[in-house]
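W.,

You were right to be curious about this one. When I first looked at the sequence I had no strong expectations either way, so I just let the prediction run and decided to look at it fresh. Below is the sequence, 571 residues in total, followed by the output.
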Amino acid sequence: MTLTKRSLTATAVLVAGILALGGCAATAEPTTGNAKVDLATMKDEFYKATDPSKSPAAANARTDAFVTTISKPGGVFLPGFYDNGWDGNAVQPIFASLVVVDDAGKPVADLADKWEVSDDDLTYTFHLRKGLTFSDGSPLTADDVAFTLTLLNDPQYAGGTDFSDIVIKGTDEYKNGSATSLSGIEVEDPQTIRITTEKPNPLALQTLGGQVISKAYYGKDYKKGQLDYLKALYGKPLGAGPYALDEYVEGQEIRYKANEHYYGGKPEVPRVIFKVVSSDSALQNFQNGDIDHGGFGSDPAVLTQLKGLGFANIRARVVPDIGAIWVNNKKPALAATEVRQALYYGLDRQQIVDAKYKGLGQVADVFAAPTQWSFTTEGVTKYAYDPKKAEKLLDDAGWKKGSDGVREKDGQKLKLSYITTKDDDPIIPIAESTYTKIGIDFVPEVLDSNTAFDRLYNGDYDLAGFRTDGLSDPDDAVSEFGTDDPDINVSGYQNAEVTKLIKKGISSFDEKERQKTYTELYQKLSQDPPIILIDYRKSLSAWNARIEGGDKYVTGSGEAALALAKLKIKN
């Protein structure tokens, strides 16, 4: 399922090109002797097109548009207000940020050409570029930044941008009192804004420097505590990015037109199209010339096919995300640590990885991708497939097998539903087989994306398959487990030691000190798992060699919009 993590900060939520779990069939036989992959040792690879002249006629005829893929957008095109991670991809061309982050999580200038941080790491001063405008030609100033941050700290706001571990000065007075503004936000002049926070946080620069929206457009009907009016504008976005929304055809495509007012100059490619394409048909669409760029899963056989096309530039990269099964800790049957441990031991995760990635995936054991500086498995419980251990844990937790083979406790059967958006999700047959053997009645539910999101965020689920957004900082993957806010911590997980370590992880700017904290945190999370980690992956993407600058564009990366603005098409 394509899910955004609501705890991510405004710029960290620049959603990576997330692939839904599923996409290839799987058997339900246990794994025996499968070779294990270590993605931490696998370098990114690039394969240059061998014969660009083989570019299909349909692509060559398209001289004014770049076409890439998207899976299942939901149509909420307003930063900070969407739940669907694909909408995060969709807003990137439209809205510019003060600061974006590169693949290493380092800040890159966007609307702000420079910034300063005070010695106590509490005050951030951003200097905007001169002459900035939104796509309608209206000016973009520090007042728009102030409005954006005010909106995201409104008492009714329940979206994915979380300031709870940063706290702009005056937030409490604004949310709970009579204050009409946040005292920590000071607009010095149209190009300068100073923001004072209450807590040092290494992620504050990204959060405060997120995507900027227009006060004149989005704020004309704003009243504190009343945000429902914004829903009418979800499908009518106005931003300062390189492209403006032209048309959204639900279930088919999102069309963009070049922003003539873009600060970097009007993009050379007049149109960008995000075409809704399933993972199963992406290769055929690329081969036919219907798309110029796309993600093509993790199958080595597909890599061979892409190489054979001749016109494809190909990248195979370790993706900084994690596939997992979300677990609703609020459900009585899943509240006990022993039960969640049993779900780990009772699921053949290596078989799932083998079925889906065919040698380009790895079983995930910690809440960090192998590409991240915090990645370590030191002292971590790894949960190899062990049905006997799973059965003992369930027995000890009071779940005994009934005459029908299904476990029960206090008159309740151990029946667990599993939400997914893919009917060929490989977790389904494998979990049905392995969980049945240990006495769990596993019931898959294949839903459309919007229904799945509603069920997840309303707490109406037992288990749900998902991928994280792109992870740039270690906190990205763990922050929701350290808060009581149900709009952020949708798993309902609670562990005082874990919460303390999560807070400690973002209390220091020293990477070595943070590494020690995350090493301990990953150990604790493996001992008392909030969810079931499944995989890391190496993924294939390709673009038609006629697209200049295609090597810089990665769907959903922090710098995706900047890369789009620089694309060119060879005629």
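Here's what jumped out at me. The radius of gyration is 24 Å. And, maybe more interesting for your project: The longest strand covers residues 532-544.

Coffee later to discuss?

I.
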